[in-house]
Amino acid sequence: MKQGKTLETLGTELRRQRAARQDFVADTRRLSFVTEDNSSRLAFATGEKLLEFGVNPLAHQQISARLGIPLKYYQRMQTEAPALLDENVNNWLHQTPERRMLRVMDGNVRAFLSDRYRRLDNLELCAAVLPIIRGMKGAVIESCEVTEAHLYLKVINKKMKAEIAVNDVVQAGFVISNSEVGLGHLTVEPLIYRLVCRNGMICKDFSQKKRHVGRQVESCDTAYELYSDETLAQDDKAFFMKVQDTVRCAADEARFMLTVGKMREAMRIPLEHQPMQEVELLADRFSLTENECGDIFRQLFLSGDNTRYGLLNAVTAASQNAVDYERATEMERIGGEILAMPLPAARSLPSPVRNITPIRKEVATA
C-alpha cells in the first residue's frame, strides 16, 4: 500500500486548506474569462469589489464539460488560439446563463460546480470519523493522503483477519474517501490488507456512498461569497452522524468472510491466457500505462501464480510503484474489480485444500 502523509501532517494541511479556501456563487453572465501566456483567469465582481483568480486544470475540464466544448478542442485552443478559447468560453457562459459555485484555493479556481453542490469538506469529515476509528479495537490508519482531487483514510482492523493460504494472512479494513471538487461521492469502501506483501485491495462490493447534493443556494443578482451558516452546520451535523454510523459498520465480519471466500475461490481459477496477454487485456479494460503493465507482469512473473488470485495480487503490488497516491488507489480498486469478475464456465485447477488452513479470525467485540 502506497504511503502518504502522517496523520499529523494531514491535519496540518487540512487546516491550512481551510484557512486558504473561498467559495463563491455567481451568475455565469457576470463571469469574464481571459487567457494569456497559457494561463487563464476568471474575473467577477462581488458588490463593488472585482475579484480575479487563476483556473486549475480540473476547473478547466469542468468548464469545458459544462459548456459542451470538447476537451481536446478546448485544450488545443488553450495552446494555439487563446483568443478563440476566450471567445468560446465567454460566449457560452453568457448565452447559457446559470448560477455556478466556484471553489477557490490559493488564488485559483479549483472547481466549477452546481450551486446545489453540498460542501462536505475534508476537515469536518475527519473531525467526525477519527473519534469513531480511535474507538474501534484493533483499528489503525494504515495510510492517509489528501490530493488535489480526494481525501483518503485507509483503515485496517488488526483483530479481524483470516488465512487465505498457509502464511497468507489478510486483515479487514475500509477506505474513506471524499472529494471537495465534485469528483465523486463521500464513500466508505471495504478494504482487504494482505500482510505478506503489505498491499491493499479495495473491494467493489458493499461500498457505501453519500452524495454531495444539497439545497439550492438562495438566489442573488450579484456574485457573493459563501460561508457556513447555522442552518448548514445543523444539516452537516445530521449528515455526518449518518457517516459515523456507516464507518462503525464498515469492517463487517460477514462481508469480510464473503470476500475471503471469493479470494479462496480465485486461487482455483487459472488464467485463461498467457500472463503477458492477460496483462494486455487488463491494459485495454482499465487504461493501464506501459509502465504499469510492466510492473504488473513483473509481479506476476515473480509470484509464479498464474491464477486470478495471482493476477489481482500482481496489480495491487504494482500499485506501490504508481506515479502518485491517486493512481495507486485506482489500481487497488482494479484489484477489487478483478476479484469481482464473473466466474468462468469451467475451472481446471483442483481446490488447493492442502494449502489452506481453516480461517482464523479475531473479531473485536463492541
Distance between the first and last residues' Cα: 28 Å
What is the arithmetic mean of pLDDT? 88
User: Oligomerization state of this entry?
Assistant: single chain
Structural class: alpha+beta
Percent helix: 40-55%
Describe the main β-sheet briefly.
Answer: 7 strands, mixed
Uncertain spans, ≥5 residues at pLDDT below 50?
Answer: 352-366
Query: Approximately what portion of the residues adopt beta-strand conformation?
Result: 25-35%
String of helices and strands:
HEEEEHHHEEHEEEEEEEHHHHHH
- Rg, Å, rounded: 24 Å
Coarse shape? globular
Describe this structure in words.
The protein is an alpha+beta fold and 366 residues long. It is built from 11 helices and 13 strands. The strands form 2 sheets. Strands 2-3-4-6-5-1-13 form a 7-stranded mixed β-sheet. Strand 7 (139-146) and strand 8 form a beta hairpin. The two termini are 28 Å apart.
